[in-house]
Predict the structure.
Amino acid sequence: MPDDLPLNNYPPVGIDVGLNRLATLSDGRQYENQRPLVHQLKKLRRLNKELARRTKDGKNWLKTKDKLSRAHYEIACIRLDWLHKLTTEIATTSGIVAVEDLHVKGLIRNRCLSRSFSDAAVGKLLDLLENKVAAQGRMLLKVDRFFPSSQLCHCCGARKTDLQLADRVFVCPNPDCGYIGDRDENASRNIVLEALRMFGLNLNMPSAIVATARRKTAWGLGVRPKSLWG
């Protein structure tokens, strides 16, 4: 490991991943879910019906099959292009990236949300983010999936146990606090605060201290970032 570690002057960010909004960052940035499959479902259904009416292995059947394949390929390209742009911007503008350690396979097993999660490609998003953050010589921290990031107020720590999935605005139950804000943004702030707390850091710590005080938290050329949960 080199003695002189390059300082990381970029701020830490927390990311809350969802379906209504694909990614909400603690610094206020928001990335919408493009839903490429949903926008092309009508076309895919039409092509599938057309393919079923054709004589298998016939000339028109092969033409329709090629159209269907190109439609699926176009959807995959749109999705991957958006994920690459999103993760590249986050990885190049953030010093520490905190995310939830989601059980993506378990989420896809949900019959009501499986298509939405597959269309959003949440697993691919997290994989790309982890690889790109490491390539930038920065750090990815993972918060336990059972951490109640959506129920806690990031200002005072009060917990709202009756929060419903339909509630998109978080209202702090503590009358002395009175925080009211976007639910996903509040969750992303809780994620970054929890990740830094578990790693012994804080939002106001200078980058020079982070880079040199504890060797295992350093980042830069020649340093392999290590996630919190291995």
Notes: The beta strands are 13-17, 23-25, 30-31, 96-100, 139-143, 169-171, 180-182. Residues 59-93 form the longest helix (35 residues). Confidence is low (pLDDT under 50) at residues 1-6, 205-230.
